[in-house]
């Protein structure tokens, strides 16, 4: 998803928020501080075109832990410290957990039922309960065998075509969630469910949430009632096509598992377990399971690609870290098998590498914006109904006081002895998955799948900078074009098996 997409998305959000903004009565409390707005357009020119989180962090340095901007009369509020984010998004979660309503994306393209776009209310609470069942700490253990099985083919594909590492991570994440959610086994890159997901994630990111600008129908909702043939109503035809694609994407894998259930051939998975529990045909439950299943699947792809790409990037740049982690794995696991979950507690340095990966990567640096449902007052500052609230996770995880030299990838920072409070505070898991009632429901899954994949790679692979045909080292060149996910662009690197023995363990050939 390019910067245009994201700014279109923000544009859309702003418009949606505008339509439901506070009718602020003249009152004495000021907004939180922020850059001075221009008349009418507000701070629109202050918004950087790329990596909004860097701009937001510059404002944080200048204006403090809570910053207010106004774009065409709509408030954007950045919460730059964990304390403020906890105070508002957690403690006042009852009014800070809504999502902006988008006409094009939500209503016309049918995405309003996806978890991440769904407003705060009964439906969202039902979704969250289902996801808690499927992805809560208690549930994750049952997926461990699947995670362990999938590591081998991932490693084989990686050593066969290291330059395509992103495709391999995508296939791994897709296989895993299709298995966990729909009990579907992916056997090739051409698997129809997998291909359909690729297509639809692309449409969602690059078309529906894009358009190079704001969808006019978001500004003037009455445009949705124009007849299809009317000049300028082309968006309606597009929406019809995309909505159908989205619905097929939500429906097809769900119908497939239902068919298997009829013949008794359904493996145990999120959908089958929940539907079986309900004994009778419960249309509400079916609807909820279907949309929740799709949302978990959709959300796992970009996030997993992002965090694992950062891990590879960090390993390529930090051979000392790789060597130290490999020494620990060799001593505890030996070289006859891959690490597994039973080894985890005995691999403290590897744990630090994973913790540092989460911090260094910051896969969703500004979280996903929430919409404030009521006017609110915080530390004598006014926050208006309809404001878009961003948790500046990037600023929290680059806080120099908590993480000295924060740009450096340094797993040892977690081994420096500190008091109990600081120990808890410096764990990036408290911030990286967002705050409050919309916090990431996939955090336990990635905590297991990401750790295992990382440990398997460290056990068997060497990571180096690539070299060109003249023997010159190519420095990995990474850019960030996507403003929701901090996904690094694909970079050149040299990934190969550590040894003949490692190759045997992976079960591959050179
Ligand atoms: C390192 C990997 C991941 C990171 C850093 C991450 C981070 C986040 C963040 C910051 C949010 C926004 C929370 C908020 O609105 O305050 C979020 C939402 C969400 N995540 Fe994740 N995520 C990751 C992986 C996953 C995975 C693997 C899944 C699915 C299995 C998943 C499913 C979701 C869903 C469904 C939402 C929307 C929740 C809602 O709006 O109620 N995430 N994630």
From TrEMBL:
Pathway: Secondary metabolite biosynthesis. Pfam families: p450 (PF00067). The keyword NAD does not apply. Heme binds at residue 440. InterPro entries: Cyt_P450, Cyt_P450_CS, Cyt_P450_E_grp-I, Cyt_P450_sf, Cytochrome_P450_fung. Gene3D superfamilies: Cytochrome P450. Keywords: Heme, Iron, Metal-binding, Monooxygenase, Oxidoreductase. Its cofactor is heme. Belongs to the cytochrome P450 family. This is Cytochrome P450. It comes from Jaapia argillacea MUCL 33604.
């Amino acid at each position: 998803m390019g910067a245009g997409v994201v700014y279109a998305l923000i544009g859309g959000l702003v418009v949606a928020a505008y339509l439901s903004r506070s009718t602020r009565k003249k009152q004495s409390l000021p907004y939180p501080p922020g850059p001075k707005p221009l008349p009418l357009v507000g701070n629109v020119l202050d918004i950087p075109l790329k990596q909004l989180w860097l701009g937001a962090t510059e404002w944080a340095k200048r204006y403090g832990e809570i910053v207010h901007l106004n774009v065409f009369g709509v408030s954007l509020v950045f919460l730059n410290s964990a304390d403020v984010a906890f105070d508002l998004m957690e403690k006042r979660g009852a009014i800070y957990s809504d999502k902006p309503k988008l006409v094009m994306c939500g209503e016309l393209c049918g995405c309003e039922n996806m978890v991440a776009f769904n407003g705060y209310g009964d439906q969202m609470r039902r979704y969250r309960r289902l996801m808690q069942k499927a992805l809560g700490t208690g549930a994750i253990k049952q997926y461990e065998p699947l995670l362990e099985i999938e590591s081998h083919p991932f490693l084989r594909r990686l050593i066969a075509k290291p330059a395509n590492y992103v495709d391999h991570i995508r296939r791994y994440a897709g296989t895993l969630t299709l298995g966990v959610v729909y009990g579907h086994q992916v056997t090739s890159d051409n698997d129809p469910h997998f291909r359909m997901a690729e297509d639809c994630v692309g449409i969602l990111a690059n078309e529906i949430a894009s358009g190079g600008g704001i969808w006019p129908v978001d500004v003037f909702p009455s445009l949705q009632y124009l007849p299809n043939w009317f000049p300028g109503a082309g968006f309606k035809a597009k929406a019809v096509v995309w909505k159908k694609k989205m619905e097929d994407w939500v429906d097809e894998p769900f119908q497939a598992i239902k068919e298997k259930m009829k013949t008794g051939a359904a493996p145990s998975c999120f959908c089958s377990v929940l539907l079986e529990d309900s004994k009778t045909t419960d249309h509400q439950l079916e609807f909820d399971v279907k949309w929740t299943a799709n949302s978990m699947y959709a959300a796992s792809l970009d996030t997993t690609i992002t965090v694992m790409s950062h891990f590879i990037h960090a390993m390529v740049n930090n051979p000392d870290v790789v060597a130290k982690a490999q020494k620990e794995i060799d001593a505890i696991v030996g070289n006859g098998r891959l690490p597994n979950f039973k080894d985890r507690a005995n691999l403290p340095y590897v744990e630090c590498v994973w913790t540092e990966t989460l911090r260094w990567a910051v896969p969703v640096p500004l979280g996903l914006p929430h919409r404030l449902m009521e006017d609110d007052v915080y530390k004598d500052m006014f926050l208006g109904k309809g404001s878009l609230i961003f948790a500046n996770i990037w600023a929290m995880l680059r806080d120099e006081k908590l993480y000295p030299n924060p740009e450096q990838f340094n797993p040892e920072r977690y081994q420096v002895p500190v008091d109990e409070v600081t120990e808890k505070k410096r764990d990036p898991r408290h911030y990286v998955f967002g705050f409050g009632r919309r916090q990431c429901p996939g955090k336990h899954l990635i905590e297991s799948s990401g750790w295992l994949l990382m440990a398997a790679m460290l056990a068997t692979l060497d990571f180096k900078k690539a070299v060109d045909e003249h023997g010159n080292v190519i420095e990995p060149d990474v850019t960030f074009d996507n403003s929701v996910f901090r996904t690094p662009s694909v970079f050149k690197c040299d990934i190969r098996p550590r040894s003949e023995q490692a190759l045997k363990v992976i079960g591959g050939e050179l």
